[in-house]
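Bug #77: duplicate submission created two jobs. Keeping one. Sequence:
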Amino acid sequence: MAEVVQHVVDALSLGGIYAALTLGLGLLFSVMRLVNFAYGELIMAGAFAMYLLQDTPLLVLVAGTLAVTIGVALVTERVAFRPLRGVDPMTLLLASFAVSVMLQNGARMVFGPIAKGVAPYPFLEQDLIIGSVRISVLDLTGVVLTAALIGAVAVMLQKTVLGMQIRAAAEDAEMADLLGVKANRVIAAAFAIAGVLAAVATLILIFQQGAVSVTVGFLPVLIAFVAVVVGGLGSLPGAALGGLLIGATTGLLDAALPTDLAPFRDAFLFSIMMALLVIRPQGLVPQKEARV
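Kept job's structure:
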């Protein structure tokens, strides 16, 4: 029983990480039709901020990671993507590849190609004992943090003026512009929110892995892109659901696969996702009205 509970918490923790990442990716796609392959470099930037700040108090590390990740998100929006606003999605896709390569190579020049260690704070390595059940404090913290963050973003999108403007731009950017929604403000806010989501995912992910490198964001974002498609391209609830599903499935496969099949976990994962797309090609929660 205790082992089952731990596996469930592990799955929910990983699911929360991917839900946060897919929500950030889905938000940028909904508002700007941007398939942002440079999103992984937000994780990389936050990870190296954690490496530099690992000997500071936890609050300083968290604040620094948030500041760096949001800062990189806003700078890329202003320098790379704002001048290209209105161009076709393929041009934006190529621009995101260029930004990704530039940021990765810049980090490689500064930090080198070798992975760096980041040790979690001692209290995060402890277990919380409830009866006969031992739950990792880090995993439980991840579940609570990501759930709270996704809930806060949902409330912001539904209950605030900025949230309504973001949703309006996501539904119909041209009509939102005619109604006086300021595109620069809305898109910059979407990038900032995506930066916050990436920062929180980074904090949990790096403390779990214990190491950072210039390619640390590649695989999580690749899986998150698959989750966005599975959830429903252009649908924010679908993005969060897809991320939660793919993350939880990954955690459960880690627990269920025998040792000799464990190296093929990702093959099983993507096979399951492909089967879902065959059954429901529009995604689990498709966008209500597709835009060309």
